[in-house]
Write a structure and sequence with these properties.
The chain is an alpha+beta fold. The strands form 8 sheets. The protein has a 7-stranded mixed β-sheet with strand order 5-8-3-2-14-18-16. Strands 17-20-21-22-24-23 form a 6-stranded mixed β-sheet, sandwiched between helices. A 4-stranded antiparallel β-sheet has the order 1-27-28-31, with no helix packed on it. A hairpin with an 8-residue loop joins strand 9 and strand 10. It is elongated, with a radius of gyration of 35 Å.
């Protein structure tokens, strides 16, 4: 009998688990170790006076300010804008500026733009022709939509016409156009703390959005009763505007290629918009001349809407239909003012009906926000019921996670753009369908689309229109954070709608070869949707629900939002704030989810059942004998028994000896004496500990896991016992710190809790890409393949039940016999 005082836990199969040499060496050979928990500061920018180590603005943080006064005129017939803008640029940086960089986004539509000349036919990128992986050797295809785009661009002169760039005295300034950018050379360097005023005269032909798939443009309605039809104009990225000048990159003068959007400076706007007199205009900011453009009835309606419980029509459907018919040669100028915004967009059409409702937000900054929607008859009841209500729901949820909505209006406008956001105004696409009986219906998919896109685009007013991240570089900082929050808002609206932000929604993408890390510059991302929207949203969902918990996550996220409200955060500011405010080291999480394309694939490989040795030979030897007896018998022996064969000792009983009646588990007094000596050698605390352990007689299980996917994550367990009860256990990701490829975990249960089944991530909450190896013992499980495939017919995909329910059931044509 061993006399050392260490208490050993041994497996039934004579395996002494503690005798295994250094567990950290398992599946870890010399030279291939990778520390998944090393500090992220290796790749993050060094904290400085502008951005500190806590992820908050530093003591000397600065950002520029740009104010605009713009007068613009819409030529409806020519579909052309002509504008004059006066710009005041405030240099708040500590540096002298010899020149200014201006964005000319409309130049992306020029034939010689980099975006057009560098477009890879059939490659990943712009909407249009696309060759799937593996189809490279098949004949090339081109869609009618792509042909339409090419034809429109050939038939129209597109891009800016810059007719003048002058200083505040009207003197010409030297400028150079570089693709979608313009450098304006200053007569003398602009010192820190000084400002400069200059003016730009510009014009451009508006693109047809349906033809070119832009972020703005016009949509033509040829079937409207007015001769020549009507248009809806959505105007965004429409005026020359300053590039951002930042502490981390200086001028953010990257060419606009179409995917990476923009980052801009905050400023104050005064904009005068000259349009046909029968047009209704929606725009960033507050209308400052309502008496000039609205009737007294409309102004009264707008006032009543502030306290209404449901949206009030400022322009009714009947009034909008009358507008559609006539047309006029008269003009009106709508004047808007917006303070502390980073952009300005607007929409104009005689087709618009307009509803509004005051969102009673409370607070001192903006106690009432006017939620408003603008849409044509094609929007129908879908927009009447859900657009403005969705705007308000968004603000209710987002304000809880970030800050009170700081602007006086929040608007949703229907037009050709499927979904796009600007300060205080968003463009959203879903509509109803006109039926033969004159009614308008919509599918469940269209309803879900409208609610979802309004939540998403209004959410963008918070991120990045207020928390002003750099979309040209890090799309995920606005799309990913916003998709996470619109998923929260959406599931609080209706959890049965597939919002696409659950961990299970990203599994297919994480298994694909066609991916890049989330921390990839926007224009280089291969699959923008999963990379910039779904994967970061799912990652944040996991961070909130699985890793940090709601209380810690929500506190840290709100802290980040408030710190960077009306400022310009970078990814490092987000990462550092979330760690600093939550008190949890998350470097491993950011490194795995945002800097790699590793997968989550944790396999449970083995489960060892163990039992505590009592060191009492009468008990332990009896257990070992029982274990041997419980082993499956030899097939040879079983068949001999079946044939009635007798053993040699049975045929010759007179030659038996001691060992025929005593096996190797027979206990002798020598062992009993050694056991007594062992007990006497124990210290009092050791004897007490052993006695309690023997009395409790718990079950000991060692679970072995492999990290096949490479992405370290917490291990979520569901344990099932013999009595049918279940228990959940959480193993933190730190278990992988020293052995990132293979770990073991000891699970101890009460003696009446006999483990029968173990499942890893039973609720699919960690985006594990292979659920087959999540079960021990292995189980037959349903495939993760989608339960349905997209129907070939577009009508079947939409399934307009609202219309189809009207269909009469056809009668049976067979005559019933009277016989």
């Amino acid at each position: 009998m061993k006399t050392n005082t260490s208490i050993l836990i041994a497996a039934f199969a004579t395996l002494v688990f503690s005798s295994v040499t250094n567990a950290s060496a398992i599946n870890q050979t010399k030279g291939n170790f990778e520390d998944r928990f090393r500090q992220l500061d290796e790749v993050l920018p060094t904290p400085n006076v502008y951005r500190n180590a806590a992820g908050e603005p530093g003591q000397q943080y600065w950002q520029q300010k740009v104010d605009y006064k713009i007068k613009v005129s819409l030529d409806e017939q020519k579909r052309r804008l002509t504008g004059h803008e006066k710009i005041t640029y405030h240099n708040n940086s500590p540096y002298r500026l010899k020149y200014l960089w201006v964005q000319l986004d409309q130049n992306i539509f020029k034939d010689d733009s980099i975006a057009n000349m560098a477009n890879n036919f059939g490659g990943v990128g712009r909407r249009g022709p696309y060759t799937k992986h593996g189809d490279e050797n098949k004949p090339a295809k081109i869609s009618l939509g792509e042909l339409r785009r090419q034809q429109f661009m050939m038939d129209n002169e597109l891009g800016y016409e810059i007719s003048a760039v002058t200083d505040h005295r009207g003197k010409k300034l030297s400028f150079t156009i570089v693709g979608t950018q313009m450098r304006i050379d200053l007569p003398k360097p602009l010192k820190s703390g000084d400002s400069v005023k200059f003016a730009i005269d510009f014009a451009f032909n508006i693109v047809e959005e349906d033809a070119v798939s832009a972020r703005s443009g016009y949509e033509h309605f040829a079937d409207d009763p007015r001769p020549g039809g009507n248009d809806i104009f959505l105007l965004a990225q429409w005026f020359p505007r300053l590039h951002a000048y930042t502490d981390y990159e200086a001028w953010t003068n990257k060419e606009f290629l179409g995917r990476g959007e923009f980052t801009l400076e905050f400023g104050d706007y005064e904009v005068e918009i000259d349009v046909p007199a029968d047009h209704i205009v929606s725009a960033t900011g507050v209308l400052t001349n309502p008496k000039d453009v609205l009737s007294k009835t409309q102004r009264n309606r707008l006032k009543a809407a502030k306290t209404a419980k449901r949206p009030v029509f400022i322009v009714t459907e009947e009034e909008a239909l009358e507008n559609e018919k006539a047309g006029t040669n008269k003009r009106k100028t709508w004047k808007f003012k917006a303070e502390n915004v980073r952009d300005f967009a607007w929409a104009s059409s005689r087709k618009f009906m307009w509803d509004a409702r005051g969102y009673q937000q409370g607070g001192e900054e903006m106690p009432v926000v006017m939620a408003m929607s603008f849409y044509p008859k094609e929007g129908g009841d879908l927009w009447k019921k859900y657009s403005t209500e969705s705007v308000i729901h968004t603000m209710e949820v987002y304000s809880r996670f970030s800050f009170d909505y700081p602007y006086p209006t929040a608007q949703s406008v229907n037009g050709p753009v499927g979904g796009m956001e600007y300060p205080m105004i968003t463009f959203n696409g879903p509509r109803t369908e006109l039926q033969d009986d004159g009614t308008r219906t919509y599918s469940q998919a269209e309803k879900r689309f409208l609610i979802g896109v309004v939540l998403h685009e209004i959410g963008h007013i918070y991120f990045p229109m207020i928390v002003n991240s750099d979309e040209r570089q890090w799309t995920w900082m606005d799309e990913g954070l916003n998709s996470f929050l619109d998923g929260v808002a959406g599931r609080e609206w209706d959890p049965n709608i597939p919002w696409g932000v659950e961990p299970r929604d990203i599994v297919g993408y994480m298994k694909s070869e066609n991916q890049v890390p989330i921390m990839t510059q926007s224009d280089s991302v291969l699959n923008l949707g999963p990379n910039a929207y779904t994967k970061p949203a799912a990652a944040l969902n996991i961070l909130r629900e699985v890793i940090l918990g709601r209380e810690l996550f929500d506190f840290a996220f709100k802290e980040f939002s408030e710190r960077w409200r009306f400022k310009r955060p970078t990814p490092s500011d987000f990462f550092r704030t979330m760690e600093e405010a939550s008190g949890v080291d998350l470097d491993w999480f950011w490194r795995g989810w945002f800097y790699s394309t590793d997968q989550v694939d944790i396999s449970i490989d083995k489960v060892y059942q163990m039992r505590l040795d009592t060191y009492d030979p009468d008990i332990d030897f009896s257990r070992q004998r029982q274990f041997e007896q419980d082993k499956p018998s030899s097939l040879f022996v079983e068949r001999n028994k079946a044939e009635g064969k007798k053993l040699w000792v049975e045929l010759n009983p007179d030659i038996k000896d001691f060992y025929d009646d005593n096996d190797r588990f027979t206990v002798t007094n020598k062992e009993r004496n050694e056991y007594k000596e062992f007990l006497e050698s124990l210290k009092p605390w050791e004897r007490k500990t052993l006695a309690r352990a023997l009395e409790e007689d718990k079950n000991y299980y060692v679970l072995e896991f492999s990290n096949i996917g490479g992405l370290v994550m917490p291990i979520l367990l569901e344990l099932t016992y013999e009595d049918g009860s279940k228990e959940s256990q959480y193993i933190p990701a730190e278990i992988w710190r020293r052995t990132p490829k293979h770990v073991r975990k000891l699970i101890v249960t009460d003696k009446d809790k006999v483990l029968t089944n173990v499942v890893v991530d039973p609720g699919w909450e960690t985006a594990d890409v292979d659920v087959e190896n999540n079960h021990y013992p292995r189980s037959i499980i349903p495939s993760r393949v989608e339960a349905y495939k997209k129907a070939k017919s577009k009508d079947k995909v939409k399934r307009d039940i609202m219309q189809d329910i009207k269909t009469e059931l056809k009668s049976d044509k067979k005559e019933v016999s009277n016989d």
